[in-house]
């Protein structure tokens, strides 16, 4: 069973006729659906085909038996239905999707060079210290890297101290720095910053008003963009939410198109006063909002990059898991606190 769990995380099932397990096989790409549900349904031998009718999803059955947070993902899953053709297990560690012993072995083994040089953690440590010591560790094996480090140590010992001392004396002239390296390090460790704390909280709209929060997301500038948003009433309760891909564009285009998409839906669901407000406005003011006050929209905009078409959410139960959590915190009027170090540091006592 232990080996089975290790292997299955590298398997993705391609749906043909729906013969794979609906609950326990990873056909959705996020792991077994059983991990997202506590219902007793997940312990039966249901297959994907049991939720299909002539190659299409049976929406009513999906809504009845699956977790609400996964419904949108399931119904948006596209596949080419091939009756009589068994579903195919795809091995994710090979580009041709076929299992090989060598790919499984490469996933399991760790070499000395990987542990102490090329591995993610080791590479981060080497990169951090090598940069300050002036050592180029790119494409260097472990033996060469250690030899280069020791040969450079004595050359850099004085240079590092001299440069750091000059830097500290220039930026913080009001502090009397020690000229001895060991004492200087002890002194630096005792210095401290002032911390500025800023309270951030989502605010409910007044009675008879609704609030639209939107956010745009760009994977790169320029690149794939998407939008997310949520409409809430004066009690903080959700009226409608959305996440939608927007194609290609800039981050500013994503922000503007997210607001337009949200206002369009406000009009469609009957909030016509929006047009009167727009006509009365001779000018408008843009103001920055901290992410902590717009977290639900921010998460929905990021969710849009996983989609190929707009997703609309009519209840909070349909929201993605993380967005639903922050939505509940907003209803409870739970505040967040931003901590920022003030640039000026203080001399140790």
Automatic annotation (TrEMBL):
GO molecular function terms listed in the Swiss-Prot or TrEMBL record: nucleic acid binding; RNA-DNA hybrid ribonuclease activity
Q: Which residues does the UniProt record annotate as the domain RNase H type-1? A: 213-274
Q: Give the matching InterPro entries.
A: RNase_H-like (IPR053151), RNase_H-like_dom_plant (IPR044730), RNaseH-like_sf (IPR012337), RNaseH_domain (IPR002156), RNaseH_sf (IPR036397)
Fetch the Pfam families from UniProt: RVT_3
The source's superkingdom equals Eukaryota
- Protein name as it appears in the record: RNase H type-1 domain-containing protein
Organism this protein belongs to: Solanum pinnatisectum
């Amino acid at each position: 069973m232990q080996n089975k769990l290790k292997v299955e995380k590298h398997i993705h099932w391609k749906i043909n006729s729906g013969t794979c397990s609906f609950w326990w096989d990873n056909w959705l790409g996020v792991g077994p659906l059983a991990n997202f549900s506590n219902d007793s349904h997940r312990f039966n031998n249901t297959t994907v085909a049991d939720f299909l009718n002539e190659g299409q999803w049976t929406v009513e059955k999906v809504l009845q038996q699956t977790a609400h947070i996964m419904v949108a993902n399931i119904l948006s899953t596209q596949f080419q239905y091939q009756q009589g053709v068994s579903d195919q297990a795809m091995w994710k560690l090979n580009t041709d999707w076929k299992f090989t012993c060598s790919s499984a072995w490469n996933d399991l083994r760790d070499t000395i060079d990987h542990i102490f040089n090329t591995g993610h953690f080791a590479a981060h440590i080497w990169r951090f210290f090598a940069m300050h010591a002036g050592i180029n560790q790119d494409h260097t094996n472990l033996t060469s890297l250690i030899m280069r480090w020791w040969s450079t140590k004595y050359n850099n010992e004085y240079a590092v101290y001299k440069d750091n001392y000059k830097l500290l004396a220039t930026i913080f002239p009001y502090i009397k720095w020690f000229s001895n390296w060991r004492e200087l390090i002890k002194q630096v460790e005792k210095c401290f910053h002032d911390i500025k704390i800023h309270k951030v909280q989502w605010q409910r709209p007044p009675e008879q008003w609704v609030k639209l929060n939107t956010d745009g997301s760009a994977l790169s500038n320029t690149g794939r963009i998407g939008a997310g948003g949520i409409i809430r009433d004066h009690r903080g309760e959700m009226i409608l939410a959305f996440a939608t891909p927007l194609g290609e564009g800039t981050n500013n285009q994503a922000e503007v198109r997210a607001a337009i998409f949200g206002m369009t839906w406000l009009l469609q669901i009957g909030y016509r006063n929006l047009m009167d407000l727009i006509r009365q406005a001779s000018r408008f003011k843009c103001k920055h909002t901290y992410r902590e006050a717009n977290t639900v929209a921010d998460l929905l905009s990021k969710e849009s990059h996983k989609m190929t078409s707009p997703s609309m959410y009519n209840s909070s139960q349909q929201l993605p898991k993380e967005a639903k959590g922050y939505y509940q915190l907003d209803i409870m009027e739970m505040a967040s606190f931003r901590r920022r170090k003030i640039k000026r540091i203080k001399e140790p006592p």
